[in-house]
Amino acid sequence: RYISVTGVQTCALPIYPTDFIAGNSKGTQSLVVFIDPYCEYCKKLHDELNTLLITNKDIKVTFKYLPIMGKNSVVAIKAMLAAKNQGKYEKLQKVVFESDNSLTQTQLLKIAGSIGINTKKLEADMKNKDIQSHIDKTLELSKTIGINGTPALIIGETKVVPGYVSPEELAKMLKEASGPKTSLKDDNKKP
User: Fold this and answer.
1) 10-56 pLDDT per residue, tens
2) What's the distance, CA 143 to chain centroid?
């Protein structure tokens, strides 16, 4: 089930200013989530991550969005990233991931307005070339490390796990990945 990361050292995974980081930014348990807001397994994982973040105060989750489910995924990702400029990322992210349907830009803007987001600014920010650049860089990174679907997880900066995993399995993998590390030097000590 694990895939070794090739071509890129995961500890050097770029974290972009537009990436959203949830949980403890200094946590010892690191999780990078490649996710699409309209992928059903991603929605399920997103909901479970919220619970995990409440119960585990030592986890840092970095969201990397991959728009693999079509045009509305791109629109939703741009809207969430743009909402970060107004300090409303989490509110819009919650609405998008809880939506039963893939939302159009018109629907997203209407919802954004209803939760206190300045829709004119949001729409202008969605067109910002930096947001498209962020999406392009994330797509390129996913290709470089061999991620071609969502959800995909990088656990402890060492393992790529494609697909959905249960909350129990994820908690176990995070704990194992953050456990004591033995160096080659220690392994070569003679009794």
Assistant:
1) 445 788 778 889 999 888 899 999 999 999 999 999 999 988 999 99
2) 16
